[in-house]
From TrEMBL:
Transmembrane segments: none annotated. This is UDP-glucose/GDP-mannose dehydrogenase C-terminal domain-containing protein. GO terms for molecular function: NAD binding; UDP-glucose 6-dehydrogenase activity. It catalyses: UDP-alpha-D-glucose + 2 NAD(+) + H2O = UDP-alpha-D-glucuronate + 2 NADH + 3 H(+). Residues 52-167 form the UDP-glucose/GDP-mannose dehydrogenase C-terminal domain. Pfam families: UDPG_MGDP_dh_C (PF03720). It comes from the Bacteria. PANTHER family: UDP-GLUCOSE 6-DEHYDROGENASE, UDP-GLUCOSE DEHYDROGENASE/UDP-MANNAC DEHYDROGENASE. InterPro entries: UDP-Glc/GDP-Man_DH_C, UDP-Glc/GDP-Man_DH_C_sf, UDPglc_DH_euk. It comes from Psychroflexus maritimus. SMART domains: UDPG_MGDP_dh_C.
Length: 183
C-alpha cells in the first residue's frame, strides 16, 4: 500500500494519497489491537506463555508474507516475553525468521529464543495458553478442535483474526473465543 501512496503523491493526487495513508494507519491499529487483546485477555501478561499462531502468510493459498499481520502481532507479543509457536502450511521456517528479524526490534538470537516454527498444527497448539488464527487457511476448519483443546493449558483461548472458525462449536468444546469485530 505504501506504493499506492507514493504513486498517488507523485501524480499530485494528494487526497488519494491521504486516503491510502489512513488505510495503512487503520491496518496498523488493528494489528496493535489484536496483540493487545491477547495480552489483556491472558490476565494482562503473556510473559513465558505459549501462543500458537496458525498462519503466517498474509492470505490463504500462498507463501507470500508481505505485510502479514502475523509478523507484527508476533513482534508485539515477543516484546511482552511471550513464546510464539508458528504453524503455516506453506511459509518456510527461514522466511518466518527473516520477516521477524527484518523489523530489527531485537537481536536475532532473542527472536529465535521466543519464536519456534513447527510443521504440525497439533504440535504448535500443544501446551499453548492461546491460539491466534492469522491466516484463513481452509484446513484450519477441519482440525480436531477437541484434540487441540484437550492438550492446551486451561482456560484455553482462541483469537480468530480471520473470522474463520465456528465460534459456537469451539465454545461447546470449552474454548473461550474472541473474533475481530465480535463481542
Amino acid at each position: 500500500m505504501l506504493n499506492l501512496v507514493y504513486i498517488a503523491k507523485s501524480l499530485g493526487l494528494t487526497k488519494v494519497a491521504d486516503y491510502w495513508e489512513q488505510v495503512i494507519i487503520m491496518n496498523d491499529h488493528q494489528k496493535n489491537r489484536f496483540a493487545s487483546k491477547i495480552v489483556s485477555t491472558l490476565f494482562n501478561t503473556v510473559s513465558g506463555k505459549k501462543i500458537a499462531f496458525l498462519g503466517w502468510a498474509f492470505k490463504k493459498d500462498t507463501n507470500d508474507t508481505r505485510e502479514s499481520a502475523a509478523i507484527y502481532v508476533a513482534d508485539q507479543l515477543i516484546d511482552e516475553q511471550a513464546k510464539v509457536c508458528v504453524f503455516d502450511p506453506k511459509v518456510k521456517t527461514q522466511k518466518i525468521y527473516e520477516d521477524l528479524n527484518y523489523l530489527d526490534s531485537r537481536k536475532e538470537e532473542l527472536n529465535q529464543e521466543h519464536l519456534q516454527v513447527v510443521s504440525d498444527p497439533y504440535e504448535a497448539c500443544k501446551d499453548a495458553h492461546a491460539i491466534a488464527i492469522l491466516t484463513e487457511w481452509d484446513e484450519f476448519k477441519d482440525y480436531d478442535w477437541q484434540r487441540i483443546y484437550d492438550q492446551m493449558k486451561k482456560p484455553a483461548f482462541v483469537f480468530d483474526g480471520r473470522r474463520l472458525l465456528d465460534r459456537a462449536q469451539l465454545e461447546n468444546i470449552g474454548f473461550k473465543t474472541y473474533k475481530i469485530g465480535h463481542v
